[in-house]
Amino acid sequence: MARRGPPAKGHKARAKGPPRARVKSAAPRDALPSAADIRAFLATADGRVGKTEIARHFGIPTELRPALRQRLSEMKAEGAAAPVGKKTFLGGGSSSPAPGRPRPPGAGHAPERLPDTAVVEVTGTDPDGDPIARPVNWGGEGRPVIYMHPERRGIAALAPGERVLARLRHVSGEKYEGRTLKRLGTPGEARRVLGIYNKGRITPTDRRHKAEWQVPEGEHAGAAHGEIVLAEALPSQGYGLRPARVVERLGMSGEARSVSLICIHQHGIPDVFPEEAVAESKRARRVALGKRTDLRDLPLVTIDGEDARDFDDAVHAEPDGDGWRVTVAIADVAHYVKPGSALDREAWARGNSVYFPDRVVPMLPEALSNGWCSLKPGEERGCLFVEMRFDAAGTKHAHRFGRGLMRSHARLTYESAQAHHEAGTEPEGLAPGHMDRLYGAFRALLAARERRGTLELDLPERKVNLSPEGKVLSVTPRPRLDSHRLIEEFMVAANVCAAEELERLGQPCMYRIHAPPSDEKLNTLREFLGTLGLSLNPAGQLRPADFARLLERVKDRPEARMVNETVLRSQSQAAYEPDNIGHFGLALPRYAHFTSPIRRYADLLVHRALVRGLKLGTDGLTEAEAARFVESGEHITATERRAAQAERDAVDRYLTAFLADKVGATFAARISGIHPFGLFVTLEETGASGFVPMKALPDDHWIVEEGNRRVMGRRTRQVLSLGDPVEARLREANPTTGSMVFDLLLGGAPARLEGQRRRRKG
C-alpha cells in the first residue's frame, strides 16, 4: 500500500507541462497526451469512450497505439479514469460524471455529491471489519466516506490500498454505500510482479496470480535461475505470456530469509530506512535525570519472549496496605522521535513493527529499537511510567503518570519468570519475595478481570522453529503461562489509566476501540451454534461474559476449536480512532495503547498527548498532529492489518515448506471452510490450512447447503459439515505461493447419511 503522510525531504514535485493537442507519428512515447489531457477529454466526452476515440481525438498514429494502451492501463490502476467493461471509459458528459468530479448543478442531484459510479480506494475497515473507502481524486469539499458492501462468499475481501470501480448510493451527509463493479487492484500492482525467475520466465509468488510472465532477452538484469525478482510489466501486443522486465533482484528462493522477504515485498511493507532517519537515530544520546523522577533504585524487571530483542516495558509490584501498588515503566520513545522529524515521518508511514519467524521489520531504526529505547538490564533509560494502586480485589482506586529515569534490574523470559515463581526462588540480583509480589498483584487484577467478564478465545498460537539455515525444524503451540497473563494484566491496566488520564486532561486520545458484533454476524453465529445444539443468550444485549460461558461449555468437546474460531470470526475488528466507543472484547469503557511505543505508532501518539497534558516537556503532541488524528487512526489501523496479513502469510509459507516433502501423507484435520468451489481443511497438529477442490470429493453431485455450513452428495446423501473431523491426504504443496491442495478420505470421515440424521432428530 502506498504510504501517506508528511512527505520526506528531498522529494520533488513532478512538473506539469503544457497540454498537447496532437501527436505526430515520429514522436516518442513521452509525446503522448498526458494523463491530465486524457482526463480533460474524458470529462467532456459523452457516453462510453474507447481507445479508438481517444486516439482519433489526439491524432495518435498506429505505431503509438500500444503505448497509448499502456498509458490508459496505468490510468485505470491509478484511478485516474473510470473503466466501463474491458476497453471503454465513462465520459464526463454522460449521465454519470467522471470519477472524482461532482455532478454539475441541475444534473440530477446537488453539487458536491459523488457520482453514481466512481473509482474509490479502500482506506480501512469499519468496526464490523467491512471495508471503508474514499473517492480517488476527489476535488469537492468535505471528506466523503464510502461503506463498501462485503464481497460475496468465496471472494477475497477488499484490502486497504485496493481500488475498485464502485456503484455509489448516497445515504446521508458525507456517507455513501458502495458496491464493487470491478476490482482495479492496488496502485502499481498491475505494473509490478514479485516472483521466482526461471529461465526467462517469472512465476508469481502470489497464489492469486496463476499466469507466468515472460522476460524478453536483455531484460533479466542478470537474474539467476531460482532467484526472487521484482519485475515491471512491459507493453504487450498479441497473445502469449505477458512480458516483464526485472527491476530488482532480492535473493535466492529457498534461502533462510526468502520467505519473509517475499512477504515484505508482496504486502508493500517498508523495510529500508531513509538515510536521514538513520542519521537522526545515530545522533541519539543517553537521557539525563534533569527534572525526571528517579526510578533507578526501584527493582523494575522486564519479562519478554526468549527471542525478544527490544524491551519496551518493565514492571514492579509491592504491597500497599491490603492491596497493591504496581508500577509500569515504558521506554520514552517520544524523547527521541520528535514530531515532524525524519524518524517521525518514517514511523508514521510504517505504523508498526512487523514480526516474522526469522526477522523483525522494526518501526524504528536499530539504534533506537534495540538501543536507547530498549530497557536493557543495568543500563539507564528514560521512561514514561504509571504508578497504579489497587485494593485487594484488584479494583483500581488511584494512579499517577510521570517521566522518569530507570534501570532494569533483570531481564526475564516468560519461562524463567514462571519457573522461579513455581520453585519459590528469585532471579539473580532480586530481593527475596520479589516474584511472589508480582504474582500476588497479578492474581488480584485477574480476579477483577474475571468479575468484569472478558472474551478469551482458546486458539493456541503456532510457533515456527527454524534452523540457522532457515529450514523449518518444527511447528509447535506457543505455551500459555501465567507469566504471559501477568504482563497482559499489567499492560491492560496501564492502558486503561492512559485513556482515563487523557480524558481528565482534556487531551486528544487515540483510543483502541472494539465494537460489539453486528446483528448479521451474530445471526450467522447463532445458526452455526444451532447445528451443534448450542445457543447464545437470545434476549438483550450480548456481553463478553456470554461468549465466555459458551466457550466454557464446549471446552472439552471435539468441536471446541471450531466454535472458538467461529466466535472469533463473528467479532468486529479492533481499530484506532480518536472517538471512543469502548472495547467490547475486554469489557472496558475506555482503552488506549500506551505500553509499546517502540513498535506501535498509536502508543507514541498517546505518550505525546500525556507529555503535553501533564507538561512533562516540550516534545508533546502538536496541534498539527491533533488535527489529523482521524486520518492517523485510519492509517495505523490499515498498517496494523497489513502487518497481520503479512505475518500470517509468512507462517503459511513456512508451514507449506515444512510439509512439502510429505506429499502423499495423510493427516488428521477438520473442515474449516465450505465454499461453492471447494472445502478448506485445517490440520490438527500444525494448524496448516489447505484447499480441497470439489472434484477431489468422491464421485457425486455435491451441493452446498445452509449458508455454506455443509455440503451434501445428491446421490449418496453423504453430509460434510463445518467442523467435522476428516482425514486429508496432501496432494500438492507449493512453498513459492504458500498453497496446499488436499484430497479428502471419506472412509475415515464422519460423513453421515441425511436419513440417519433425520431419524436421530426424530
Describe this structure in words.
28% of the residues lie in helices and 27% in strands. It has 762 residues and is of the alpha+beta class. The strands form ten sheets. A five-stranded mixed β-barrel has the order 4-5-6-8-7. Strand 10 (201-204) and strand 11 form a beta hairpin. It is globular and about 85 Å long. The model is unreliable at 1-30, 92-111 and 748-762 (pLDDT under 50).
Q: Overall mean pLDDT score?
A: 83
Helix proportion range = 25-40%
Structural class: alpha+beta
Q: What distance lies between the first and last C-alpha atoms, to the nearest angstrom?
A: 55 Å
Work out the radius of gyration.
Answer: 29 Å
Total strands: 35
Largest sheet: 5 strands, mixed, barrel
As residue ranges, the low-confidence spans are 1-30, 92-111, 748-762
What is the general shape? globular
Tally the helices: what do you get?
Answer: 18
How big a fraction of the residues is strand? 25-35%
Strand order of the largest sheet: 4-5-6-8-7
